[in-house]
Amino acid sequence: MSVTTASAATTAAIAVAPATTVTGPSAAVRRQGDVDNRATYISFGLAYLLGHGSAALSKGDSPLLDLPGWLPMALLGAGLAVGTVQATVAALRAQRAATEPDDVLSGQLLGAAWVTAFAALFLAITGLAATLDLPDVQSLLWPTGSGFVVGLLYIAEGAQRRNLLHYALGTWLALTSTAALLLGTPGFYWVLTIAGGGAYAIAAVLERRRLNSHPGQPRRA
């Protein structure tokens, strides 16, 4: 009876062993494909806080600060440039960590989409300002357009990477950036500063918790 029991136990152990071996590497691959988005969130968050925040303080009928008109756009543009680079690097790193051909192609397309989207946004805003002969419209369309474009790209990346935090942040940015158009100056910029910059700050904190909830070391972007 003891020999039969030992044989059955050995057979069960052999049957379980292959499943354990397969599951381990598979989980490791998923962890390696994860991306740390905190650098991207912080870069875009600073762009919102400094760019839109300075615009909110210096524009309107009773501005709180007397700042050069070019300064808010310069701060916003610098932050968006750094954030776009960080986001492109994150997309490329996620693509390099992928093993399936379809995932590799998706990562490549998402990385290129950042450059394409902002190039198209630049052409659209510049063309509208020149055609309508309203150069001041750029100060309105750039904050809204950039938030809308970034939001849509986050939604696409979140769906592709199965990252609910990324997807939720993109949805929030796309909606609040366009809804801000309903307000006048400086309320328009205050909404972008608080709703956009605050969302990035919260996302950076939640991103750390998200990464700590998964074992292994994700790729830093």
Describe the structure.
The protein is an all-alpha fold and 221 residues long. The protein contains 7 helices and 2 strands. Helices cover 80% and strands 2% of the residues. The longest helix is centred in the N-terminal third of the chain and has 31 residues. The N terminus is likely disordered. The chain is globular. Strands 1-2 form a two-stranded parallel ribbon.
How large is the share of residues in beta strands? under 5%
The number of strands is: 2
Percent range for helical residues?
over 70%
The span between the termini is 59 Å
Q: Main β-sheet: number of strands, strand sense, barrel status?
A: 2 strands, parallel
What would the average pLDDT be, to the nearest integer? 79
Q: Structural class of the helix and strand makeup?
A: mainly alpha
Number of distinct helices: 7
Q: Shape from CA axes? A: globular
Radius of gyration: 23 Å
Strand order of the largest sheet: 1-2
The poorly predicted ranges are 1-32
Write down the secondary-structure element order. HEHHHHHHE
Overview in brief:
The chain is mainly α and 221 residues long.
Question: What attributes does this structure have?
Answer:
single chain; 221 residues; mainly alpha; two-stranded parallel ribbon; disordered N terminus
Q: What are the SSEs and their pairings?
A:
Blueprint: H1 2-32, E1 35-36, H2 38-58, H3 70-97, H4 101-131, H5 138-161, H6 164-179, H7 187-212, E2 219-220
Helix pairs in contact: 2-3, 2-7, 3-4, 3-5, 4-5, 5-6, 6-7
